Amino acid sequence: MDKNISSIILSLVLFLFTIIGCSGVNFFNQKKLNKRIDFILSSIFSFMIMILLIYLLPEVYHCLGFKNLYLFFIFLVIGFIIMKTIDHYLPNHDYHQLTKNKIKKNYIHISLMCAIVFIIYNIVIGIELYNTILVSTNESIRITISLSLRNVFLGFMIYSMMNQDKYSKIKKILIIFLLSISTFIGIFIRVMINFNNIITSGILFSSIVGLFIYFIIDELYRRVMPKIKKKETIYGVILGIAWLLICSTL
Asked: Closest Cα partner for 205 from 78, 72, 104?
């Protein structure tokens, strides 16, 4: 099968599984789901830490090694600054200055930040997925299955946070659509720009590490850790870890 056709089919699979994850929210009572925000935040918290530890950092080391470790720190800082800048220009970004009746608005902020992080992450994954397709179709299918399960999780959790308050349906659809097609965007970029350099991959993943670290520390850590002894938070952390481990075994 033609490599470009294979990449389109695989990106379509990822698109559909993201939509499935978002649609799953409709099978739950929204009022009850709104009361489970600590569970949602803690599951995303542990899920992202696991991606960082199991996928991103090992991939950076594989691509850059110790010889180019300085590139890792440079582009980690760049990724961190990019996320900080995005955070500053999104509404309701200062959690400490919010009144209680505006806390829900902050959950919208977190969902936007989370979506942006994973849109950028998926674009890079799309680039690397196409590189894998060029080498091994079977391996690319295995990776797509793992990514599909991740997308179900992300679609459900991000859309759940968006539903914490009355949020424009058009904006919800736009954000989820961008999240759903982000892997395809990465594949398209890779097709248009013919590069397959391991150092470039290491630089891209280093930047993603910076995005992840900023979001985990600034948005999730300060909300999850004060409630870490709550049952909902503990169950959320366990779910995030378990889901990613299941994805990693495929």
From this structure: 72
> Between the CA of residue 60 and those of 52, 122, 128, 195, what are the distances in Å?
10, 16, 13, 17
Burial 199-234 (b: 16+ CB within 10 A, else e): eebbbbbbbbbbbbbbbbebbbeebbeeeeeeebbe
pLDDT of residue 195: 73
pLDDT confidence bin for 109, thresholds 50/70/90: confident
Task: Locate 9 and state its tokens.
Answer: 């089919």
Distance, in Å, from the CA atom of 20 to the CA atom of 154, rounded to the nearest integer, reads 10
Task: Name the nearest CA neighbour of 151 among 26, 45, 47, 37.
Answer: 47
Separation between Cα atoms, residue 209 and residue 204, nearest integer Å: 9
Pick from 75, 79, 104, 232: nearest CA to 163: 104
Q: Say if residues 63 and 199 touch (Cβ distance below 8 Å).
A: yes
Amino acid sitting at position 168: S
Tell me if 164 sits within 8 A of 104, measured CB to CB.
Answer: yes
pTM higher than 0.70 for the full model?
yes
| For residue 27, pLDDT beyond 80 | no
Cα 183 to Cα 23, 32, 126, 151: the distances in Å are 19, 32, 4, 11
Report the interhelical angle of 137-162 vs 103-135 (nearest 10°). Answer: 170
Dump pLDDT digits (tens) for 140-180. Answer: 999 999 999 999 999 998 888 887 766 777 888 899 999 99
